[in-house]
Description:
The protein has 7 helices and 6 strands.
Amino acid sequence: xxxxxxxxLSSLFFLTAQEKTSKTPPxxxxxxxxxxxxxxxxxAYKDGKVxxxxxxxxxxxxxxxxKFSKASNFQxxxxxxxxxxxxxxxxxxxxHDHHKAKDMRKTMVEGLSVDxxxxxxxxxxxxxxxxxxMLFSDKAFAKGFTLKSDSKxxxxx
Length: 157
């Protein structure tokens, strides 16, 4: 009886802990250093704003935004300025042509859940040595993410 109770309590603890971590949004980090951001330090990027830890990082970004595009694309999603509308690998949405809603797959990238259209895309992403670059490159970002039409989303930061 004690063994069963222990297993049940352990399972409940594990599920509760897993649920809490999956609902906690990832921290928003400076796209240059990965440090904590300062909301007063930002630059315009893809009809949104990216945030930095200091003026020096803002200057580095402004000189070469392409160099920081993956981290910037990721931050645009984290700050709710952009939303995922389709698979960043194919550009397909669930239910498009041969893909069905039940085929939708998810993968986690630095604490963010990203939807993929099918098992084939999930396999491709899981085989990648750099999931982050694969899903947040400019090409993938253009396929899978769009600017939120809600203008208030920019004001949340």
